[in-house]
Amino acid sequence: MITKNIFYLLLPLTMLALNGCSQDVSDLQEFIDQTKVKHVGSVEPIPQFEAYTNFVYSAGDLRDPFETAFQMEGNGDKSDKPTLNQRPREPLEHFPLDTLRMVGVLQRGNKIWGLIKDPQNVVHRVEEGNHAGSNEGEITSITEDRIELLEIVADGMGNYVERNATLSVGEQ
Questions:
Q1: Looking at the domain assignment, is residue 1 inside a domain?
Q2: Which of 8, 83, 91, 101 has its CA 20 to 30 A from that of 63?
Q3: How many CB atoms are located within 10 Å of the residue 114 CB?
Q4: Is residue 149 in some structural domain?
């Protein structure tokens, strides 16, 4: 009995819903047709590319950039890195070279010494053959305005290369 009452109640609602779907849709069809006419797409032409030109390497007589520039004595493996075991570590080797500052020179006769101030404001007297900086920097020359060093630094591939460095008076 309840099912029959629900059926009689739902039948008119279903008829109303179907009646709403059967309305005239000509205005919608007209809008779709106008939109299709308005928006005619266009594709840009494919861009023209320049032909590839080969590069001629004219520096064939120079050093191969993929070869190691300098290797320490030995067979070239990572064990060939410089060691401090052959000599005691000097006081200025505890500081990176860029933290050291040349403050002057001392000279007696033909002998010349450089004066280097460390980050702790201690002045050290150095001569050729002394070491400074954290990269095995050996002092090779001292003049009135500069101290030249030869450092040994890692090249990032397990080998070591020599590099010139300078401390000058007044440089920070």
A1: no
A2: 83
A3: 26
A4: yes
